[in-house]
Amino acid sequence: MTKVLISGASVAGPALAYFLHRDGYDVTVVERATELRDSGYAVDFRGAAFDVLEEMGVLAEVREHDTKMRGTTLVDEKGVETGQLPAEAFAGELEVPKRELTRILHRITAGDVEYVFDDSISAMSRHESGVTVRFERGATREFDLVFGADGVFSKVRELAFGPHADAVRHLGLSGVGFSTANHVGLDHSGLLQHLDDTAIYMFSADEADRLTVSLSFATASPALDRRGRHEQEQAVRAAFAGHGWQVPWLLEAMSQADDFYFSSACQVRLDRWSHGRVALVGDAGYCAAPTSGMGTSQALIGAWTLARNLTSSGGDHATAFSAYEAELRPYVAENQTKGRQAAATFGGGTD
Asked: Is 100:10 a contact under the CB 8 Å cutoff?
């Protein structure tokens, strides 16, 4: 039985694990976090992603967690309404809390797939018959194939393809996300204020008393992603200094939040998504940026496409990886164009 290792237990990793195990592979998933991640914004689904969820047998269950967003109100610097956006602008054809999707994907694979939490790949040695993998905590193991599904700053990609700087392209935006009390009384709806090079988006959906907040601003690089929380908060405060409306209390809520999360809008662009017996899937290989609205759908479709080509190739990984890339690249290119255009709309660049 072909033994495979998948790095990352968010969306692309467990989805790939599901399809590979179904097709007869012996699958191990390693995840740096100590347990299943219970955070993240709501995620949305578009197009062929529904076919993937249906094939996995979870579409109906995922639909049960629909946030039922009704739309977003646009406001000016004083909070006065200037327009409306339909729910589809942010929620796609279906939106669910990310934690619910992650739980579902883990549940349908946990009985068949080996999950190793609180560990990470530290080194890989590729040879003709497989890949020797060293871990930060666990013992060294041998695998036939290794897949990186570990995000924009993928450890697998760094080890097999080179430095992050060679693949990650900053789109000129960074931001913080967190949740707080729903003091503005939103009900399955959102508020969006866009002023020059800053944007505030807040919404309330599945938990009526909670407000999810995003504060984004123009940046020259993703360097803040690797800094500590104090420095990240200081950058947010500097970007929003002097802003009125809801900003003062949002900044205080940010400092008190226990689910503080900072990230930059980036894309991953590579000339190839595989190197020998190592391949990338999802954000690790071709992130289109959160501004594209396609991250989750792309992760699911990518995992489905990769697994399908492995099966149809009869286990010939070189043929499968080539076919996977040829099939998926046009879709990824379209999504990355959307990501760059949306980032530019909010004051970012178009690198």
From this structure: no
